[in-house]
Amino acid sequence: MQIVYNLIVLYLVGHLIWYLFREKKFWNKVCAVLVLIMFLLRLFLIK
Question: Could you tell me the residue range of the domain that residue 13 belongs to?
Answer without folding.
Answer: 2-43
